[in-house]
Amino acid sequence: METNQIPGLDKKTTLVILASSGVLIAWSLGSSILESGPISASIITYGLYVFYWVYALKYRNPLIQRLLVFGTIAGILELVTDHYLVSTIDSLVYPGNELMVWSSPMYMPFAWSNVILQLSFVGVLVTRKKGVVLASIILCIAGGMYIPLYEHLAKDAGWWWYHQNVKMVFNAPLYVIVCEALISLSLPVLVQYSERHSLSKTVYLGILEGVWILVSAFIAFTIAH
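Structure (tokenized):
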């Protein structure tokens, strides 16, 4: 199936999402080099999140709207997982000199929404070319490399870091890499189901993804810490 047969999936939107992913990587790298602190995380997170909504509404893009709803709900529920990492297993550390919600910086749900949107969009592209099973495998591998890139850069940027009491790959714990691979594994299936049903089902799928993030953290820490 060609990408232009899917409402909201077109060349312009593909370029926008891929370019914004590049901007996020470049910003994270620059923040790491400059040791710019939490303020730079807030700027890029809120900036991208607002940009995605403006784009989705201005161009009436149903796919981006759907992914934003999905990612935002999952991102809000990810606060539970953050609390587990910060307070229960005492692994994740935030600077604390910023606005916080529970155990997380205020921007964190929106940061997750941005990354889930980017990965899910890639999942849609690959699913249309290779099918959902292969897309899930590819995204599992990609997510296991893509998200931990930010984990690595975040420490020098002063955004967050981890205690060195677990197995590490550079600045990212091994269990975090496994966790984020598991999270990414679920995206193609959930997003494909969302495309075929009403927006209200996307809300429930966002809740399911938020729960899966927590389950993935439990599994990953158990087998890979």
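The mean pLDDT is 94. The CA atoms of residues 22 and 85 lie 28 Å apart.
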